[in-house]
Amino acid sequence: MARKTGSHSEITGPRVRAAAQRLFARDGFAAVSMRQIAAEVGVQAGALYLYTPDKQALLFDLLKAHMDDVLSHWAAEPKGGGPQDALEAFVRFHIRFSLTRAEAVFLSYMELRNLTPEHFARIEALRRAYEDQLEAILAEGQVAGVFAVPDTKLATMAIIAMLTGVNTWYREGGRLSRGRVEQIYQDMVRRAVRA
């Protein structure tokens, strides 16, 4: 379908995605209608279909964009000279990245159940690609004799769950700065895997 004359896809498209993310995170995917998203953006409900085929595609696009961002930003992150440096970099990156994208992180965990099987498989593959980065760091540390974990996959899941949990309690301007939280979590993770 062609855009209407005078529409601004480079402005309205991102506004549609931002409104959907905000509403899905606040009310849940199933409870939000396309009409609500349209009202939030200030367009007619039918206009949304110029930017997305349906609500399911919109959710998938939000989750995929988030995982693409995670992977591309992690790929660009300096990782130091060995597994200990790489683990510290991963911990600090995950906390820093997650805290600046709380809604996207929330959706990526809570709304997976609302994806079609095909969409779920694609997002799950991206999540595995990210998890594999941490597991490779742990495996390298095992080989080097600096980490000792009974199962690298389980340790990976536990560490990521712990790091992502910061989003549930951290508040900007609270007792601890982001930098201090990163340091404390980095120390806890290092102690948990130390040989």
TrEMBL record:
<feature type="domain" description="HTH tetR-type">
    <location>
        <begin position="10"/>
        <end position="70"/>
    </location>
</feature>
<keyword id="KW-0238">DNA-binding</keyword>
<dbReference type="InterPro" id="IPR001647">
    <property type="entry name" value="HTH_TetR"/>
</dbReference>
<dbReference type="InterPro" id="IPR009057">
    <property type="entry name" value="Homeodomain-like_sf"/>
</dbReference>
<dbReference type="InterPro" id="IPR041490">
    <property type="entry name" value="KstR2_TetR_C"/>
</dbReference>
<dbReference type="InterPro" id="IPR050109">
    <property type="entry name" value="HTH-type_TetR-like_transc_reg"/>
</dbReference>
<protein>
    <submittedName>
        <fullName>TetR family transcriptional regulator</fullName>
    </submittedName>
</protein>
<dbReference type="Pfam" id="PF17932">
    <property type="entry name" value="TetR_C_24"/>
</dbReference>
<dbReference type="GO" id="GO:0003700">
    <property type="term" value="F:DNA-binding transcription factor activity"/>
</dbReference>
<dbReference type="InterPro" id="IPR036271">
    <property type="entry name" value="Tet_transcr_reg_TetR-rel_C_sf"/>
</dbReference>
<dbReference type="Pfam" id="PF00440">
    <property type="entry name" value="TetR_N"/>
</dbReference>
<feature type="DNA-binding region" description="H-T-H motif">
    <location>
        <begin position="33"/>
        <end position="52"/>
    </location>
</feature>
<dbReference type="GO" id="GO:0000976">
    <property type="term" value="F:transcription cis-regulatory region binding"/>
</dbReference>
